Amino acid sequence: MNLAVKTSDERINDILLGPLERPVLRWLCERMPPWVTPDILTAIGLLGGVITAAAYWLCIIDRNFLWLSDIGLAVNWFGDSLDGNIARYRRSERFQYGYFIDHTVDTLTQTLICAGLGLSHYIRFPYALLVLVGYLQLGILTYVDTAVTGTFKISYGKIGPTEIRFIIVAVNLIFYFVPNPTLRLPFLQIALFDVIALSFAAAFFTYFIVFTLIRAAALDHLDHPTAKV
Length: 229
Fold this sequence. Notes:
Layout: E1 10-12, H1 18-31, H2 38-58, H3 65-89, H4 95-119, H5 125-149, E2 151-153, H6 161-177, E3 182-184, E4 189-191, H7 192-222
Parallel strand pairs: 1-2
Antiparallel strand pairs: 3-4
């Protein structure tokens, strides 16, 4: 979900798919029945995460459950993207409550999805957890940066939660149609899909480190200690 933060002077969601997503969300907000509240939409988003996680787990029985995981991601997008937007559209934002529920439910959803992926036969559980840790680090980076700068930035390099969902759908297609051979390296034997997972984890960790160093340098320049007299 995408809710404004009370302590934030500016909210940045400059995503690649924004020009397509924003009109769709506006259209949905205009037509959503009054009884559909942001809390209901938040619950729908969480349900989508549960569906995705369960579908990944069930892939050990039949790989066609990957299509169900895509449906779960669509349900998650619907609830997660619309709850904050409909609150703003109706001018019924609850900043502290919304911010708290937003990020706690998002964290639970992300954990469920990565755990479900790790329980499938596509990616080993430790590698799925590395992806989760890397993604959660980016979330922590967002929250800390908001507290320090007053800017709530939920997109990095044109990539936000919506783009991540599309990337997961693309990875699901790879899982479905591409074999998963074991790569025999001089120092390691690892499956192709595990390499994909580690690549995502490495990208998350790298962005976290680079952004942290850049922000720390900028803050060091702006925030000098006051000399004692």
